[in-house]
Amino acid sequence: MTAAATGVQLVRDGGACDSNGVCWSTCCSLRQNVCISNESSSFVADNATVACLVDPPTATNPSYAPDVSQNETFYISVGVGAAVSIAVLVVFLWRATRAAATDKHVDMSSTDVATIHGSDRPPVRLQRHGATALTFSDADKQILDPYRLDSSKLELKVLLATGGYGTVWRGQYDGAVVAVKVLFDGRKSAAGVSKFIAEVALLATLVNPYVVSFVGASWTTVESLALVVEYMDLGDLYDYLRTHSAVEFSWTAKRRCAADIVRGLVYLHDRNIIHRDVKSRNVLLDTVKPSKLSDFGVSREISSKTMSQEVGTYLWTAPEILRGDRYTVSADIYSLGVLLGELDSHQPPFYNVTIEDGGPMLGVSIMMRVMQNQLHVDVSPQCPPRIASLIDLCTGHGPAQRPTAAQVLGALEAWVVDTVRGNDLDLCRT
Prior knowledge:
By secondary structure, the chain is of the alpha+beta class. The chain folds into three domains: 8-57 and 74-103, no CATH class; 108-230, Phosphorylase Kinase, domain 1; 235-429, Transferase(Phosphotransferase), domain 1. It has helices at residues 21-26, 73-81, 83-104, 138-144, 190-203, 237-243, 251-270, 319-322, 329-345, 363-371, 385-394, 405-421; strands at residues 8-10, 29-31, 34-36, 49-51, 124-125, 154-162, 166-173, 176-183, 214-218, 226-230, 235-236, 273-274, 283-285, 292-293, 300-301. Strands 5-6-7-8-10-9 form a six-stranded antiparallel sheet. Strand 2 (29-31) and strand 3 form a beta hairpin. It is globular.
């Protein structure tokens, strides 16, 4: 089956998409070095996706292509039925692979420091030397200038995390402890910086106890642009779940954490903002402060152009988004349900899903089963019934089947009331 027949055309070239004229001219938009187009006029399938990958193509020899026998016709017919779904999955999986690779190999030149992960070192001033081809537009300056911090007062001290876009540091600003997000050199293209500025602009408008607080932005040049937010001393929920047992992190504490997360979503959804990346990695914890939502690099206000291909971590992604539908707040609720499953298991989503020989199921198979309503979030025998019920409701296959964030919060708060009154048996399980 040809790529066109599946609705996917991979346009590969040696240069990065943001600097490659061939790739750019073929595709209508740039998303994390993937040029994506929904124009179908040039292809066999409707809603075709064009992914411009930065890797050179691997040469193939057509002489090795087998003839299609009559016995294979049935399997090809079945494959055609799944072609459109596979077209959507190609971009998701390729993006996830590149993000994972970046997590393992950190380009430390992006921060002008050499340090061991999590180790203290002498403070480094956040600035870069040398000329840069990038400059801020007047529109960028209008967005950033009201939030500009004095870069001479900002210090990077401890590397906390690395991801697909850059690094997060514990630092100090004017004596106060802060978290600092810095882009990798490879992300410091015009498109990368524009996305970073959009995150600054959005965070600056969010003031809520359950959303990480915005401090400001710092730069000496375009390439040294950094986002500064409040510091949460327990790190993210993903790591916390994997370093603490169910006894250490009881359901009494988990319930508070879940309610904090949902309060953050209620705030966002009331403002017509979709987070679009709700997962344990994007929930921050603290010994004193409530749990908070973080990482708004992919959040968007609701609009008709909010398309699924731009973002998504597939294990937490709603089935309609995997199919290529438009994001709605209901997609956040599905991701919340998956996150509640993490609170139960202390493991990544679908960690226990295996194939016939007992090996782990591949991501593409998990995605296909989620899309077809054949795979759901399991709960343990120790999971409180109210959480199990919320997981089931939040991960309903259709968006209309899922509750709102306000309804989920109401259920969690009712649980608290019942516990205070002594009418609740759920916590006896912990």
